[in-house]
């Protein structure tokens, strides 16, 4: 996945280690991210019949379409059913894409889930991402030759991924800044620079030649935009304000910034001509897609046997007494494991495989003692 990772090493040890508590926390975070991304896509059916899907999780198969050939993308279900064991590149999500699996780009291979496909999907857009390359440096991720720890950030326009250090600006540490547009895409849609001076992140802008704090102007701009939204074009008003910013580096946008874009008839034509009509759609955002995935996963888990949680499905096949016994045992083990690990965390110790083996041996021993005691009283 295109996320940054961290590892802590103990002094005096050659092998890097992490505490199990750290591992569990990171595993839970990654599981939540995976649920958000994959939960919004169907893992059983090829997405091809749906046409150019608004947003979906995509993969590229380096085994079937290696570098030097034509780029191709496959949906989540095809990555499982048609390309199991292949060398896949995870592309996260992309918009308006139709699954290529089994079309002419794959030679004699046919899709196992939906074989009746057109030869090519002319509406798809491809980039070097489909060959496992990213950023302006055109490198893979993770990069075995890159010793600099750095996160990857996706541009919402071209949907390429960039190293933070290659964005031409300081990456802000602010949860409000949810979307980024790279410098190249900003220059291809120059009218966005006018918006960037008003509704982008906390940057220093120029107002009639005088520097001022962006946050103050952000509040003023919101008020003036709302007042003038019915009177005329917001973009024209922003250009006339005399406020500008340096036209370089990537731009990070504040939450809900899309709602402040002008949607007058002239601006709609502007978006269409520039190929960025999706900016007017709040549901186009990755955040909206992830929230949909989380909702889907939560609904499935709450659905019991109808969901995909194997534990809940197994419980529903048991009688009430067996269900209560298993739930009781599970809660006891979870509490005991948590208490067991807390001691290691409090003392700053690393949990070894022997420690984990010892814990479960203790669990088995207690279980045997309880079973023997039950047999004695029942005989």
Strand numbers in spatial order across the main sheet = 2-1-3
Q: How many strands, which pairing sense, and closed or not: the largest β-sheet?
A: 3 strands, antiparallel
Computed Rg: 26 Å
Count of spatially separate domains: 3
Structure class: alpha+beta
| DSSP strand content | 5-15%
The helix fraction, in percent, is 25-40%
What is the number of helices? 11
Are there runs of 5+ residues with pLDDT below 50, and where? 1-16, 211-230, 304-308, 373-379
Order of helices and strands: HEEHEEEEHHEEHHEEHHHHH
Chain-averaged pLDDT: 80
Report the count of strand segments: 10
Distance between the termini: 56 Å
From the spread of the alpha carbons, the general shape counts as: globular
Quick rundown:
The protein has helices at residues 20-38, 76-81, 183-188, 192-199, 214-228, 234-240, 265-274, 286-302, 310-315, 320-347, 353-378; strands at 53-61, 74-75, 88-97, 152-154, 161-163, 177-181, 205-207, 210-212, 243-244, 251-254. The chain has 379 residues and is α+β, with helices and mostly antiparallel strands. A 3-stranded antiparallel β-sheet has the order 2-1-3.
């Amino acid at each position: 996945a295109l996320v940054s990772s961290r590892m802590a090493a103990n002094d005096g040890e050659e092998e890097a280690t992490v505490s199990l508590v750290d591992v569990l926390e990171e595993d839970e975070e990654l599981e939540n991210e995976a649920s958000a991304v994959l939960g919004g896509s169907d893992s059983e059916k090829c997405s091809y019949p749906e046409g150019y899907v608004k947003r979906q999780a995509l993969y590229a198969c380096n085994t079937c379409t290696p570098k030097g050939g034509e780029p191709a993308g496959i949906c989540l279900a095809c990555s499982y059913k048609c390309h199991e064991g292949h060398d896949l590149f995870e592309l996260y999500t992309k918009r308006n894409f139709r699954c290529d699996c089994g079309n002419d780009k794959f030679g004699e291979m046919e899709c196992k889930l939906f074989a009746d496909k057109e030869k090519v999907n002319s509406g798809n857009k491809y980039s070097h991402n489909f060959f496992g390359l990213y950023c302006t440096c055109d490198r893979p991720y993770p990069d075995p030759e890159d010793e600099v720890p750095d996160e990857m950030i996706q541009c919402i326009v071209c949907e390429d991924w960039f190293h933070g250090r290659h964005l031409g600006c300081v990456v802000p540490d602010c949860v409000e800044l949810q979307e980024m547009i790279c410098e190249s895409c900003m220059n291809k849609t120059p009218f966005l620079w006018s918006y960037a001076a008003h509704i982008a992140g906390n940057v220093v802008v120029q107002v009639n030649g005088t520097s001022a704090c962006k946050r103050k102007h952000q509040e003023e701009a919101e008020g003036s935009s709302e007042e003038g939204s019915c009177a005329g074009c917001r973009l024209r008003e922003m250009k006339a304000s005399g406020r500008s910013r340096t036209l370089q580096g990537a731009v990070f946008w504040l939450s809900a910034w899309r709602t402040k874009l002008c949607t007058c008839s002239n601006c709609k034509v502007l978006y269409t001509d520039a190929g960025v009509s999706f900016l007017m759609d709040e549901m186009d955002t990755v955040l909206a897609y992830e929230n949909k995935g989380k909702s889907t996963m939560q609904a499935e888990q709450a659905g019991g046997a109808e969901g995909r949680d194997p534990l809940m499905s197994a419980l529903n096949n048991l009688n009430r007494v067996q269900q209560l016994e298993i739930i009781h045992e599970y809660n006891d083990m979870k509490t005991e494991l948590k208490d067991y690990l807390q001691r290691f965390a409090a003392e700053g110790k690393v949990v070894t495989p022997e420690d984990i083996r010892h814990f479960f041996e203790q669990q088995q021993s207690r279980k045997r003692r309880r079973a023997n005691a039950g047999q004695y009283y029942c005989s």
